[in-house]
Amino acid sequence: MGSKKIVGPLLTEMISYDWIVVSVDYRLCTKAGYPTQLIDCKRALRWVKEEIRVFGGDPNNIVAAGDSAGGQMACLLSSTANLPEYQPGFESVDTTVQGVLGLSPVCNLVDLENYSNHPCRERFIKEVALREGSPESAENLKFLTEHSPRFRIKGASVPHMMVHGDIDTLTPVQHTRDFVDHFRSTCTAPISYLEVPGGHHCFHLISSPRTWYMVIAVSQWLNYYFDSIHNIDSKVGTKGQQVHEIVEWGWST
User: Fold this and answer.
1) Which ranges of the chain does DSSP label H, i.e. alpha helix?
2) pLDDT, tens only, 88-115
3) Which residue of the set 168, 175, 192, 204 is catalytic?
4) Predicted TM-score of the model (pTM)
């Protein structure tokens, strides 16, 4: 569920800082099933690479971002870059990105520890991927592993930022904690993690103090790693000072 028409404070704020934002839809339910959605996102990335200069953007400075399942797609866009099996008809197109921002992301579809409050393995296999057989079968567990960002990190070389509320009942915060820990121990790229106390699933889509703390942190992260032209800090104004308060909210780098 969801739509690119759902625009939260982060998108509007970054647009006000002169970032070029491309909001992407993918097919939510298809006869083919997942990974159709990942391929759709790669097609959108191909379009961005080819056309974004028309809008003033830089095809060599792309940050993939997403909420919930979109966070999973953002992570996988990075970890499956240039893999021909997910680029049918455009296998030779460069689909690398320069950064990833995951918001309440789906990081672990396998969930052997059963942190989820719902049968996530069965739901994904049966309702999203439309695959046959038991979700516990070796073949389906392999499929779930291949499409879980947690197990595809493998020496990631682009900066990541992950944001998660600590009372998320849909996508377990523990999965993101595990992702961040594994990333830090295996990857050369930097990762920043903001865990927000009292944050529900996709809390950032609604304006609130929590959301604006998150917006401040994300805007400074984007500026630090990706914006060598515009000085985002000067546009943020007094909010640039408030980011230090995030330390008490679980900010770590």
Assistant:
1) 9-16, 36-51, 69-79, 120-123, 138-146, 173-186, 209-226, 232-236, 239-242
2) 999 999 999 999 999 999 999 999 888 8
3) 168
4) 0.87
